[in-house]
Structure formats: structure tokens, C-alpha cells
Amino acid sequence: MGKILRANLIEPEKFVLEQVEARSPGAGEVLVKVKLCGICGSDIHAYHGTHAFIDCPIVLGHEFAGTVGALGEGVDAFEVGQKVVVEPSLVCGECYNCKTGRYNVCENLKVVGCQDTGAYAQSIVVPAAKVIPIPEDMEYDRAALVEPLAVGVHAVHRARMEEGARVLVFGVGPIGLLTLVAAKSMGAGKVLAVDVLDSRLELAKQMGADAVCNPTKQDLLGAITEVFGPERADISFECSASEPALNQAIDLARKGATIVQVGCFGPPVTIKNMSYIQEHELMIVGTMMYMQPDYQEAIDILHNSRLPLEVLITHRFSLEEVAEAFRMLDEEKAKVIKAVIDIS
């Protein structure tokens, strides 16, 4: 197959560019030539050595799109050159959750680019069952957003959102913005976006938010009642992984509301008002990754939406610039929404 270039995080904050032999796809596998791969928050935690479930050395990268490069034995559902994305969850298929249709919480879950070799590379071999075609006219900038948008789609399904629901989104970084897009695309009524960065709130407006609030400058409860009335929100999506934001979402929820925890916390957090959750019958719901129907729904949204979703990609780097990309993300993270590695 020849050699490919990849970026290996051999230890925290140290990438090494390597020329390695490309692996040929085996039975039931597909070789994907990577075009674009997004940089996720989990990649940044891994870069600093603070991710609980990612160890060095590791080739990162799980938000990627590309083309089929080669097919393994028994794979006939794809054509070489076809545009695809990859659902990066690798599951056992044997545990209780896998057998009952919830493989996203597989007891033995591994993720491409986290516990298995990822896509900061010119090509990658993955199970054919995880390869999903995309429309040939879909731009790669949109295709690279399928994975994070699928997170938002799954979160909305976990909320059991009804048509016209009143929705709060806490934290409009990339996942929060795409959760907002998912909620609006799936039938939400009014959406109020909350963040401490005005630049992100401006993007939230572009992504369909009906109103925004910077709680460092505006009373949040006042904003909520102004937008939704005294009934307040039906659903809050906490996307910032901020302890104050989570507690604020609880404190400001009306009785019977649902709070979906989308952001991934690192250190343990303290919920300060547990009695409020019990007495007001709040639903606190976790959400983990996605399943293939969420991926397909995300593809459909990206393909059909007239929103300028490509503006969410604010920074672009070559594979050779991966170390520079992570240094920049540390130094200028407030200016970044989504950075991608362009491996074309």
C-alpha cells in the first residue's frame, strides 16, 4: 500500500510526524483516505495528558471525512473514490447495551482516535459497518461537522423534545452551537443561547437562536422570562461542562423541566441544590456520543440546511502543522470555534 504520513502524540504536548506503512483493509474493513479531520475538545485534553481515557502514544482524530481508498474482502457496499464519513465508536456487540440497541454505551466501548488509531493521518482502516456515505455534492467543510452535529442530534433525542419546545442552550462553543442547530432543525420553538463570550453569541444568532444572553452583562432569569414567559424553558442543554452553568440550569428550571448534560466534565462537580431536583421533579439526563441513525440525521441536516454552517470552521491547518494548531488552540481558544486538519 505504500507509506502514509501521520501525527503521533507520543507524550503529552509532543507530536511526532511519522512515515508508516499504510495498512491494507482486511475482511470487512475499508481504507478511508482522510480529507478533513476536526480537532475536538477531547483531543485537547489528550494533548495535555488530562483525558481520563486516552493514553499516549496515540494518533488522535475522530471527526473526519474523506473518500474510500480500498475495500477489504467481502465489502461491496462502497465504491473506491466515494465520499464518506465514519462513525468512530468501536463496540463489542456482545454486552447488554449492545444487544438491546444502545451500543453507544457499550460496556467495552473504544473510539477511533481515543483508544484506537485515529485520523490525524493520510489514511485509516475502519470497519465497513462504521462507514457512512455522504452526498457527493456535500462540501468537506460540512462533512467534517457530521460527528459533532450527531452529538447534538442524539442529545435532542435524549431530551424527548416535542415540537415547539422552549429550549435553553448553555455554552455555545462548537457542541453548543451544533446542539442549537439540531434542536431548531428537529422542531424546537424558541431557543435562548447563553454564553459569556459575545462573539459566540453572535454566531448563535447566525445558527438560528431566537435570543441570546451573556449572564455577565444581563440578568439570566430576566432574559429567560422575557423570551419564554413565566413558564420558562422546557429543556436546557448544558454544553459548557461548567459547574456554575449546570447549577444555574437547575436553579432556573421550572418544575418538571428537563436538563440534558451534553458537555463532558473532567474533575468531579458539586450539584448544590439536590433538593430542588427532587421537589421540582426535574429530569437530569446524560447523553453519550450517538448512534448511526443520529449520524444519518446529522448528514441530512447538513446537506439540506441553508444555514452558513461552514463559518463554524474558523481555523485550518495542514497535517504538518498539527503541533502549531494545538499551541494556537491553547493561546487563542476564545477566538476558535472549530479548527480542522486539512490532509488533502
Question: Main traits of this protein?
Answer:
344 residues, 11 helices, alpha/beta, six-stranded parallel β-sheet, single chain, seven-stranded mixed β-sheet, globular
Summarize the structure.
It contains eleven helices and 17 strands.
Provide a descriptive summary of the structure in words:
It is a single chain. The chain has 344 residues and is of the alpha/beta class. 28% of the residues lie in helices and 25% in strands. The strands form four sheets. Strands 3, 4, 5, 8, 9, 16 and 17 form a seven-stranded mixed β-sheet that branches. A six-stranded parallel β-sheet has the order 12-11-10-13-14-15, sandwiched between helices. A two-stranded antiparallel ribbon has the order 1-2. Strand 16, helix 11 and strand 17 form a beta-alpha-beta unit. Helix 4 crosses helix 10. The model has no long low-confidence stretch (mean pLDDT 96).
Task: Report how far the terminal alpha carbons are from each other.
Answer: 18 Å
The proportion of residues in beta strands is 25-35%
SSE order, one letter for each helix or strand: EEEHEEEHEEEHHEHEHEHEHEHEHEHE
Q: How does the helix and strand content classify structurally?
A: alpha/beta
The DSSP helix count reads: 11
Q: Indicate the percent of residues in helices.
A: 25-40%
Write the layout of secondary structure elements.
Blueprint (H helix, E strand, L loop, with lengths): L2 E9 L2 E8 L7 E10 L2 H7 L15 E9 L11 E4 L2 E2 L5 H4 L10 E2 L11 E5 L3 E3 L6 H4 L2 H14 L7 E4 L3 H12 L5 E4 L3 H9 L4 E3 L6 H9 L6 E4 L4 H9 L6 E4 L12 H6 L3 E4 L5 H13 L8 E6 L3 H10 L6 E5 L2
